[in-house]
From TrEMBL, chain A:
Keywords per UniProt: Cell inner membrane, Cell membrane, Membrane, Phosphate transport, Transmembrane, Transmembrane helix, Transport
Predominant location category: membrane
Record PANTHER family: PHOSPHATE TRANSPORT SYSTEM PERMEASE (PTHR42727:SF1), PHOSPHATE TRANSPORT SYSTEM PERMEASE PROTEIN (PTHR42727)
Listed GO MF terms: phosphate transmembrane transporter activity
Membrane-spanning intervals of the chain: 6-21, 42-66, 157-179, 191-216, 251-275, 295-316, 336-360, 381-402, 449-473
Record Pfam families: BPD_transp_1, DUF3708
NCBIfam families for this protein: phosphate_pstC
Organism lineage: Bacteria, Pseudomonadati, Pseudomonadota, Alphaproteobacteria, Rhodobacterales
Domain of life of the organism encoding this protein: Bacteria
Membrane protein topology class: Multi-pass membrane protein
The protein's name in its UniProt record: Phosphate transport system permease protein
UniProtKB/TrEMBL annotation, chain B:
Species name: Hasllibacter halocynthiae
Domain ABC transporter: 18-260
Keyword terms: ATP-binding, Nucleotide-binding, Phosphate transport, Transport
A Pfam family reported for this protein in Swiss-Prot or TrEMBL: ABC_tran
Highest taxon above the source species: Bacteria
Record's protein name: Phosphate ABC transporter ATP-binding protein (PhoT family)
């Protein structure tokens, strides 16, 4: 029985439980629903939830435990002596047993019958089932393969039984309780709370998992490569032959430089657009312009990248960089920064627009009533009141800029260098993460592992920005309530 | 209404400051003010009374063109201040509002310090030549708003952190800081205790020497105490307008009588 079938069966059980619980509650009140503590549907829901939740919990635990148990059985069947304590050889043997087990399952062999045979007859039985066994394979490997198939079969049957049992017991317990005095509504409330907590736990645990996995690989990297050279190195020069220079600073510089240019473009334009949209534009202009601006946010970044590569880069080179004698590279910090700035405009403008709209009209009235003009009101009252939200939107845009990859690859190039000239090609952390991972390197070499250290650096940077944004928003929020 | 001390007031026959003729206000399809004509005298306090939703605030907002900020609002008819039509195209509403100050029904301090709240108007209009003068204006205004003693030690604290009644007085101080010729006060004492109310009423009386004050109030006693003229609004109509003493002792319209004796409203 597959997990899907178990789930469907459970759901069916819960639906049946719902109607039984509802019916039982109504019956226990003698048909007079008003005598019940809660509406009948809450009794039904309570039974359904008490059926589902414990059974699902058992299923989850079982699905996690089954592979572990199977591995233990397989390991025990092979025994430690065969590999002679060599971990590598042990894992090879286990892999061999696994292949044979797959064969057994595919051949639909009678596992129990084969397992009953003597060690000597095992190989023959395997061959009869149509599974090729290499000459001289130790019988304990064959036993291990049998153990894997057997355990999996028994295990899944036990799982079905346990899950079914949990569901039925839960349903019965809840059904028994479904009387007029039972506070089904409160019970359902608690169950809902549980589901909400579970959802947030999943989100948090996943984040923690991602960070931890990055952290472990980063630690591995720092074992193979000196930390000081990574954090303070000014040269980025990975080599496949080893002996690379993996300095973070050129990448950090490129990231900051491109982001800075992008923000210099996006913040004023986005903010002024937001002010126009929320304070000056009539409803008709707003209805057209706002969605148009938000389309910008929907364009995939690779399209922006193409725009940078094909249009903006050559344009900047021919009209600015070459005439000014600042180089002749189409890929440049300026190209990527400008295009990324355009990409960020809607982030800044739509968030700022929302916070500006949230400033109460009475605040504007107060200022206008004192004889201030519209722009004075906006500058001195509306924008300061909305400032926390505006700063928050800018910091969010900044963390997007730092994490952006595609525009940089196509717009700024891949040359890691530290230069003040904005018409020079540079590159960022994200680009180098990609290029270090797509190579054909050994996974455990510092040249590959450095990607994780870069990723963690990036994560810490954006995290810091987000925390700062949240802090600012929270610190100054609701001043006008 | 027997306990009400209605004193005969010497209303000097001063010239008309505000003159409204056939004013109508619509909010979309809602007809909020219906054909109101009224002459408000200079150097007097005029009280607007009437049941909730009858259009007192709406009419008050016409006098400094605050209704311009509401998209759906439409005003017809003429309102003249010092003989000049304020809805004329040549009139700059910004200039007008500097002249006609307003205290709003709901306190709306800016999310700035108490000092900056009061200094806001004077700064915009350049009323102070230096910091010392500005400090003086702020202190005098806060004193007139009867809140100086409570906030003098925390002028840097945000105005939004004050209590509702304190915010109300801060807004009064903010409005008088720009020295308007006309002050429109929409229920300025609705959240004040009797002592603060008395202080604000004192301020209103003092303002009367130089300015004209229009005050909306739900308290008959307050209207009787501070005003020389009273206007009674009902369902968008100006039902009765006259000297305060006369309105409260011998109202001509039965609706006015019912309202001030507490039968409608
Ligand atoms: N912004 C608006 N949009 C639409 N209708 C409005 C608006 N403001 C007021 N009104 C309507 O106009 C009428 C008069 O409102 P107004 O605020 O002038 O009453 P009021 O006399 O000040 O009442 P209160 O004593 O409760 O403050 C009400 O019927 C109200 O619903
Ligand atoms: Mg009102």
């Amino acid at each position: 029985m597959t997990t899907g079938t178990i789930l469907i069966a459970l759901l069916a059980l819960a639906v049946v439980g719902y109607f039984l619980g509802r019916g039982r509650a109504v019956a226990s009140a003698g048909g007079d629903v008003r005598r019940l503590h809660s509406l009948p549907r809450f009794y039904g829901l309570n039974v359904a939830l008490t059926t589902l939740i414990p059974a699902l919990a058992v299923l989850a635990v079982g699905l996690l435990a089954l592979p572990i148990w199977t591995d233990l059985r397989v390991g025990a069947a092979i025994g430690p002596s065969l590999a002679g304590g060599d971990a590598g050889r042990q894992s090879l043997l286990i892999a061999q047993a696994d292949r044979l087990a797959e064969g057994l399952e595919g051949a639909d062999a009678n596992v129990a019958a084969i397992a009953a045979l003597d060690d000597g007859a095992l190989a023959g039985a395997f061959a009869d089932a149509g599974i090729a066994v290499r000459e001289g394979t130790d019988p304990s490997i064959l036993r291990a393969a049998l153990a894997r198939v057997g355990t999996q079969e028994t295990g899944s049957w036990m799982l079905v039984l346990l899950v079914g049992l949990a569901g039925v017991v839960g349903a019965l317990v809840a059904l028994r309780a479904s009387g007029p005095a039972f506070r089904a509504r409160n019970a359902v409330e608690r169950a809902i709370l549980g589901v909400l907590i579970l959802a947030s736990t999943i989100a948090i645990v996943t984040t923690a998992g991602i960070v931890l996995s990055m952290l472990f690989e980063t630690i591995n990297f720092l074992r193979a490569y000196p930390a000081a050279d990574f954090f303070f190195g000014t040269v980025w020069n990975p080599r496949f032959s080893g002996d690379s220079q993996l300095g973070l600073l050129p990448l950090l510089w490129g990231t900051m430089y491109v982001s800075l240019v992008a923000l210099i473009v996006a913040v004023p334009v986005g903010l002024l657009a937001a002010i126009y949209m929320s304070e000056y534009a009539g409803p008709r202009v707003r209805a057209v312009a706002k969605p148009l601006l938000e389309i910008l946010a929907g364009i995939p970044t690779i399209v922006y990248g193409l725009f940078a590569l094909v249009t903006v880069g050559p344009l900047l080179r021919d009209w600015f960089a070459q005439p000014l004698g600042l180089g002749n590279s189409a890929s440049s910090v300026m190209t990527a920064g400008l295009v990324m700035g355009v990409m960020l405009i809607p982030f800044v403008s739509s968030l700022s627009d929302d916070v500006i709209n949230a400033v109460p009209q009475s605040m504007r009235d107060g200022s206008l009533g004192l004889g201030a003009t519209k722009s004075e009101t906006i500058r001195q009252v509306v924008v300061p009141a909305a400032l926390p939200g505006i700063v928050g939107s800018i910091l969010l845009a900044a963390s997007r800029a730092i994490g952006e990859t595609m525009i940089v690859v196509l717009g700024a190039g891949a040359a890691a260098q530290m230069d003040l000239n904005p018409f020079e090609a540079m590159t960022t952390i994200t680009v180098k993460i990609v290029s270090q991972l797509v190579g054909d390197n050994d996974f455990n070499s510092p040249e590959t592992l450095v990607a994780f250290a870069l990723g963690l650096t990036l994560f810490v940077m954006t995290l810091a920005l987000n925390v700062l944004a949240l802090w600012i928003v929270r610190r100054y929020r609701e001043q006008y309530e | 209404m027997n306990d009400m001390r209605i004193t005969e007031r010497a209303v000097d026959l001063s010239e008309t400051k505000i003159s409204a003729r056939n004013v109508q206000v619509f909010y979309g399809d809602t007809h909020a003010i219906k054909d109101v004509s009224v002459d408000i005298a200079d150097k007097t306090v005029t009280a607007f009374i009437g049941p909730s939703g009858c259009g007192k605030s709406t009419f008050l907002r016409c006098i400094n063109r605050m209704n311009d900020t509401i998209d759906t609002a439409r005003v017809t008819g003429d309102i003249l201040i010092d003989g000049e039509d304020i809805y004329d195209r040549r009139v700059d509403p910004v200039q007008l509002r500097a002249k006609v100050g307003m205290v709003f029904q709901k306190p709306n301090p800016f999310p700035k310090s108490i000092y900056d709240n009061v200094a806001y108007g004077p700064r915009i209009h350049g009323l102070a030549r230096n910091k010392v003068e500005l400090d003086e204006i702020v202190e005098r205004s806060l004193r007139r708003g009867a809140i100086w003693d409570e906030v003098k030690d925390r002028l840097d604290a945000p105005g939004t952190g004050l209590s509702g009644g304190q915010q109300q007085r801060l807004c009064i101080a903010r409005a008088v800081a720009t020295e308007p010729e006309i002050l429109l006060m929409d229920e300025p004492c609705s959240a004040l205790d009797p002592i603060a109310t008395a202080q604000v009423e004192e301020l209103i009386d003092e303002l009367r020497r130089n300015y004209s004050v229009v005050i909306v109030t739900h308290s008959m006693q307050q209207a009787a105490r501070v005003s020389q003229k009273t206007a009674f609004f009902h369902l968008g109509h100006l039902v009765e307008y006259g000297e305060t003493g006369q309105i409260f002792t011998t109202p001509r319209d039965p609706r006015t009588e019912s309202y001030i004796t507490g039968r409608i409203g």
